[in-house]
CoA transferase subunit A
Amino acid sequence: MRKVHSTAVEALAGLLKDDMVIMSGGFGLCGIPESLILAVRESGVKGLTVISNNAGVDGIGLGILLETRQIRKMISSYVGENKLFAQQFLGGQLELEFNPQGTLAERIRAGGAGIPAFFTKTGVGTLVAEGKEVREFDGENYVMERGLFADLSIVHAFKGDKEGNLVYRKTARNFNPMMATAAKVTVAEVEHLVEVGEIDPDQIHTPGIYVKRMVHVPNPVKHIEQRTTRKRPVEETV
């Protein structure tokens, strides 16, 4: 089966529909599947539930889907960098299911592993636990969290071969590997596309069996979410 497609739009053809659940990899702006997000925007699908650590920033990443009002609900951990997100949420135009970051990661991992639910101490006695089952184990209370599984996962990888085996690089190896396992269909964008056999099997993070389609995106823009600099010290004059 041919997995590599010429464009992101082609890679997502026939997969998108209104009211679907999409997982989108990335941490901040690092490792986001930007070309695939753009293709989602171009498709015009709406009513989306998006599972992602964050919602990008204004005008970048998932932020562009907020601009077009294509997202109905976010299941996220951190959304503090997006002013439009705050406006839509506070205005009742966007639903939000907040998760502690580790809980979100484990919910995704559990979904990919076929685990429907698990218990954690994180969030016990807080708003996070409201409406959820709390059970005692060994004298301690734990809250039940459900695993997450999506209709579609879109991920970004540093390198991939034509069978869909993926390698992520540094911080971009964040939510991407877990999300690649936790959906009916996973579509990956890769910076470097190589032939089968060119990746050392011990270096593969996501086996190709999880990846249905791919698109080669060489030289993607690497956005910097927060640029912090300091002034050069003033040289002393003699």
Summary: The radius of gyration is 19 Å. Residues 4-116+147-216 form a domain with the Glutaconate Coenzyme A-transferase fold (CATH 3.40.1080.10).
